[in-house]
């Protein structure tokens, strides 16, 4: 049994341009979505005493790119 999470929202722009709606959407998809996927599958893995989880982050978690501040931050959280 396994789980791979790789969904992401990426909006280009500076922090100064980011609205609360843009930030919320990225946080919900990139971080909350990853956590919820794990939360729902983990009980089955525990019951089976088996399973693997791979949460795909991004090189941006380590090497942040300009104009991607929100995305970079969410991928650090996934990492």
UniProtKB/TrEMBL annotation:
Pfam families: adh_short. Coiled coil: none annotated. Keywords: NADP, Oxidoreductase. SUPFAM superfamilies: NAD(P)-binding Rossmann-fold domains. InterPro entries: NAD(P)-bd_dom_sf, SDR_fam. The keyword NADP applies. Belongs to the short-chain dehydrogenases/reductases (SDR) family. This is SDR family oxidoreductase. It comes from Rhizobium beringeri.
């Amino acid at each position: 049994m396994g789980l791979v999470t790789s969904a992401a929202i990426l909006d280009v722009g500076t922090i100064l341009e980011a609205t609360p709606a843009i930030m919320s959407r990225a946080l919900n998809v990139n971080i909350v979505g990853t956590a919820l996927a794990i939360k729902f599958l983990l009980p089955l893995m525990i019951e089976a005493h088996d399973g693997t989880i791979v949460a795909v982050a991004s090189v941006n978690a380590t090497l942040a790119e300009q104009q991607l501040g929100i995305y970079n931050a969410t991928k650090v959280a996934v990492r």
